[in-house]
């Protein structure tokens, strides 16, 4: 046996015995999700069945035998389904017009539509109170000059309006992405058979978009069903599940964490049930599409163009009105937190002593930036092993990463509070738990988008790198990541926007030293410091719009605006 052959065999033996780095990554990621997701949710489940004497069903008996609690469940379900339907009825024609026809300023319109969603929902509620509340601007103008009593923004109708305006962009962005996969030949065939206009949109296009509509609808339902801030501000005592859950966890007299855990279990059952129904229908209706000839927007005749632009711009005006009100309120003069009559402007709100605005903004960048780094690293690693190394363990990991997608943020916050508030792992109030909470909520979307990018990349590129002697980790860092960098960066910017507007997950976990802008806005609105809330909201909206504009300037432009 020659020396060269022996050397080759020795190198082969070393490769066989060399640890596989992806086994370590898979094991580490699975352990992370077991500790951060599964363990806290199991703690919630165990707490829901615990009482002074041990195991008990008393918490669930209290819920199902109490008319107040059952009404809260019915109200939350109604809000979830109603907002989902209303959002779809608005988003579908809006996306159809934006895709099929030439709309002036389309890129700017898309940024502004998405910006109207990228803010905590309670900002919309707070803005509509300033507009249509008992002493709102529009209420006073209509009463003083036209002697007309405007409809009240308070109660169920107001909740539906505010949440619908907030969540229409969610389905809209899903639909805009799906429409790009429809080949124009399908539309031409339908037109040749006499199906045009509204009939074609309903009979031909809509069935092709069912999986996309269901995916967007699930997110809208979960957000509306689990929204806490909007019902609290304008519900006027309307009972909802998040309201009951928050009350049980932070009761003024005493807390009842066992009952809060039971409510969390019921919320999880509802959202998981909706998720599995959505998955079942989507799988049955799945259609594989690849647009060889994508739809090209066409120019309308003057009258049609006027109507199309009117629909888009009127919606945009209504959806942005709350944000305009917030911006103005940030500069309005206040006394003891309340606006003085008339429009008197000042910069005093940005230097308010009621809250350290500079520290809150700094916390947002430090905690949000740390969460973003964690998201990108974990998403790339998990996406790679799920696409390139499919096996039983990685399929379990893939399922675990989807749990925060379905479980509402308020429930995750309760789970963390139960798990990480006592030794040996006492993290509540620390920067660590805030970073984990912020990262966990956005992780499923980033993993999915990165996996989609990776699945489009030819594996032969990696194989060539490995055959040239590069290690697997070096191949990932020097070959795969640079190839995916534009898509990863665009997704990271969108992740950043959703991180800085996150509220519900961190509501139970922060303290004064770890308060972010969203939490600061919530705290100041609750305390009636409206000018300070407006100032913080103005800063947050400025960061949001700048981030979205950056996404639009990246390769792919508006295609990057996918939530």
Notes on the structure:
The longest helix is centred in the N-terminal third of the chain and has 34 residues, at 67-100. This protein is mainly α and 563 residues long. It contains 24 helices and four strands.
Short description:
The protein has 24 helices and four strands. With 563 residues, it is mostly helical.
Which key features would you list for this structure?
MetI-like fold, mainly alpha, 563 residues, two-stranded antiparallel ribbon
Break the fold down into its secondary structure elements and pairings.
Elements: H1 3-17, H2 21-48, E1 50-51, E2 54-55, H3 58-65, H4 67-100, H5 106-117, H6 121-132, H7 137-145, H8 156-179, H9 184-192, H10 197-208, H11 210-225, H12 229-234, H13 241-249, H14 257-284, H15 302-331, E3 334-335, E4 338-339, H16 357-388, H17 392-401, H18 403-406, H19 409-419, H20 431-455, H21 460-467, H22 472-500, H23 517-526, H24 530-553
Antiparallel strand pairs: 1-2, 3-4
Helix pairs in contact: 2-14, 2-16, 2-17, 2-19, 4-8, 4-11, 4-13, 5-8, 5-15, 5-24, 6-8, 6-15, 8-11, 11-14, 13-14, 14-19, 15-24, 16-20, 16-22, 20-22, 21-22, 22-24, 23-24
């Amino acid at each position: 046996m020659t020396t060269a052959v022996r050397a080759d065999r020795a190198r082969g033996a070393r490769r066989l015995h060399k640890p596989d780095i992806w086994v370590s990554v898979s094991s580490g990621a699975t352990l992370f999700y077991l500790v951060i997701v599964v363990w806290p949710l199991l703690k919630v489940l165990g707490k829901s069945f615990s009482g002074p004497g041990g195991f008990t069903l008393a918490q669930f008996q209290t819920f199902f035998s109490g008319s107040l609690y059952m009404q809260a469940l019915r109200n939350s379900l109604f809000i979830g389904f109603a907002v989902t339907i209303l959002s779809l009825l608005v988003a579908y024609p809006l996306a159809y017009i934006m895709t099929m026809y030439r709309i002036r300023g389309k890129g700017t319109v898309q940024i502004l539509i998405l910006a109207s969603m990228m803010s905590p929902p309670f900002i919309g509620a707070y803005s509509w109170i300033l507009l249509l509340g008992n002493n709102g601007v529009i209420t006073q103008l209509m009463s003083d000059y036209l002697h007309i009593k405007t409809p009240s923004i308070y109660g169920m109708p107001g909740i539906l309006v505010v949440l619908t305006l907030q969540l229409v962009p969610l389905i809209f962005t899903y639909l805009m992405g799906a429409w790009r996969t429809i080949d124009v030949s399908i539309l031409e065939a339908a037109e040749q058979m006499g199906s045009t206009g509204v009939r074609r949109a309903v009979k031909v296009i809509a069935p092709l978009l069912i999986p996309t509509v269901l995916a967007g609808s699930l997110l809208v339902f979960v957000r509306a069903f689990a929204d806490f801030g909007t019902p609290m501000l304008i519900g006027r005592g309307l009972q909802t599940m998040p309201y009951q859950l928050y009350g049980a966890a932070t009761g003024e007299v005493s807390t009842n964490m066992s009952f809060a855990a039971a409510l969390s279990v019921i919320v999880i059952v509802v959202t998981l049930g909706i998720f599995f129904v959505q998955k079942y229908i989507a799988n049955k209706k799945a259609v594989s599409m690849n647009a060889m000839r994508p739809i090209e927007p066409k120019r309308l005749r003057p009258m049609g163009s006027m109507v199309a632009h009117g629909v888009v711009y009127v919606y945009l005006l209504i959806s942005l009105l709350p944000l305009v009100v917030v911006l103005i309120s940030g500069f309005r003069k206040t006394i003891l937190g309340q606006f003085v009559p008339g429009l008197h402007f000042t910069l005093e709100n940005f230097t308010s002593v009621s809250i350290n605005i500079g520290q809150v903004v700094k916390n947002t960048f430090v905690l949000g930036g740390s969460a973003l780094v964690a998201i990108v690293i974990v998403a790339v690693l998990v996406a790679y092993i799920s696409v390139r190394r499919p096996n039983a363990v990685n399929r379990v990991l893939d399922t675990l990463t989807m749990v925060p997608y379905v479980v509402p943020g308020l429930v995750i916050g309760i789970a963390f509070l139960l798990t990480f508030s006592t030794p040996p792992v006492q993290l509540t109030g620390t920067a660590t738990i805030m970073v984990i909470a912020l990262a966990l909520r956005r992780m499923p979307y980033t993993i999915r988008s990165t996996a989609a990018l990776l699945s489009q990349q030819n594996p032969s590129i990696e194989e060539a790198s490995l055959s040239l002697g590069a290690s697997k980790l070096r191949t990932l860092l020097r070959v795969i990541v640079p190839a995916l960098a534009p898509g990863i960066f665009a997704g990271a910017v969108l992740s950043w926007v959703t991180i800085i507007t996150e509220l519900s997950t961190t509501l139970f976990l922060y303290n004064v030293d770890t308060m972010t802008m969203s939490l600061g806005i919530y705290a100041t609105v609750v305390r009636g410091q409206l000018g300070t809330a407006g100032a913080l909201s103005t800063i947050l909206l400025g960061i949001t719009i700048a981030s979205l504009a950056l996404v639009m300037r990246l390769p792919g432009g508006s295609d990057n605006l996918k939530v």
